[in-house]
Write the C-alpha cells for this entry.
Amino acid sequence: MAQCAVTGARAGLLHTPHGVVETPVFMPVGTQGSVKGLSPRDLIEQLDLRILLANTYHLYLRPGPATIQRLGGLHGFMSWPRAILTDSGGFQVFSLSGLRKVTDQGVLFRSHLNGDAHLFTPESTVDAQLAFGSDILMALDECLPYPASQEAARQSVQRTLAWAQAAFRHYHERIQGLERYGALFPIVQGSMFGDLRRHCASELCELDAEGYAIGGLSVGEPRAVSLEMVELTAPLLPRHRPRYVMGVGLPEELPEYVARGVDMMDCVLPSRNARNGCLFTSRGKLIIKQASYRDDPRPLDEACPCYTCRHFSRAYLRHLFQAGEILYASLATLHNLRRYLDILREIRQSVLRGDFPAYLDAARSATASEQPAEL
Ligand SMILES: [Zn+2]
C-alpha cells in the first residue's frame, strides 16, 4: 500500500474471491442486480469495472436469496464474473419502508412492493448475502435520518454495535466448511456526533474485520459535516484494512474523501444523474436538455475517451434525451461512470507517483472556478 506523505490518501489492492480491485475505487450501484442501462459486457469492455454494488433489501424481496442461490448466486444470476459488494439492507429499510419497528433483535418492516411483513436480523442479512455469494458483505446497522438527537444517536450506536457483534458471531459459524466466501464489513454509525463516531469505531475494531465502512452519511447533512465525520473516524480504523464510505459523492468530493483516508465509495449519483440529463465532464456539469446543445457537434467531453464521447455529439444525445430514447440512458450512464472511474484512476496514479497534494490543489481550484454555463 502506498500512502501520501501529506494527506491521508492511500493506494492499495483489495483482494476478493472474484479478483483484485485497485483502490481507491468507486463502485457503481446495481440496485436490482443490474447497473441500469448497461450490460456486464459494457461494464467490462467499456469501463473495465472491477467491483459493483448490489442492494440486499431489493434482491431479498425480489427475487429472493433462495432463487438467486439456485441460479448460481448473484454472479451467475446476473452473469457478472467480477467482485460484488452487497449492502446490509439496513439503509433501504430505514429510508424506503414506511412502517417499521426496531428492536434489539432486528428490524421488522413492510415491503415497499406489496406490504408483506419481514424481519431483518443481523443473522438473516448475513445469510442472505452468503446466499448471494457476495464478495463483500455488510453487517446490519441502524441508519438514522438527519438531524438526530444525541440520545437517539447514542442508542443507535449501541444497537449497531450489538448487531455487528451478532452478525460476526453468526458469520464465523456459517463460513466453517465453506470453500469460498466473502468478507464481512461492520459499519461505523454515530450520526453527526464525533464522540459517538469515535466510540463506535474503536468498539468495531475489536471485531478484527477485513474492512470497515463509515455509514449514516449523505442523509441530508451539509457536506462539510460529512467530511468532518470521515476525517475524525477514518484514522481510528485499522491502517491495513480498506475503509469504505457509503453513499458518496459528487465528482469534486471524491478526492476530498480519498485525502481523508478513504479507499472505497459508492453512489447512485453518476448513473441516476445521467438518466436525468446531468452529465459530469472534466470541465463541470453539463445539462443536456439545454437549447444551446441543439446544434452542438462536439462530444460531451473532449477529454473523455469513452465510447459515447468518441462517437456521438451533444446534439444527438440531446435529441435522444428529448425523444425519451432508451439509448440515451445507456450512452449517458456509460459516460458518467467512465468519468467517475477515471477520476479515481487519476487519484490512484497521483498517490503512487507521490504528487497527490498537487492533484488535490488542482482539483480544488478547478471546482472553485467551475463555469458550467460556458461549456
Ligand atoms: Zn465520455
Observations:
- The two ends are 38 Å apart (CA to CA).
- Residues 40 and 80 are 6 Å apart (CA to CA).
- Residues 300-301, 304, 306, 308-309, 335, 338 surround zinc ion (CB under 6 Å).
